[in-house]
Amino acid sequence: MHIDWAALGSVFGVSLAVTVGLVGLFTLGIVGLTKREAAASGTGNPGSTAVARTGAYACFALCAAAVAYGIFLIVA
Hints:
Layout: H1 5-41, H2 49-75
Helix pairs in contact: 1-2
């Protein structure tokens, strides 16, 4: 039995990078929604409400697209 260590390492590296990227995107989405709520309650800058909401939704959409692409790769 021969193990291709280079291929195993590259799969590990890509998996780690994609996981950290998705968690980072989701975190940015949560932070965007938190800033939106702070601006709506009067403790934040009211001008940034639309920008924070749009950024948060964009982060969540990118997360959903990455998950859908991963499911497509597994199923296809």
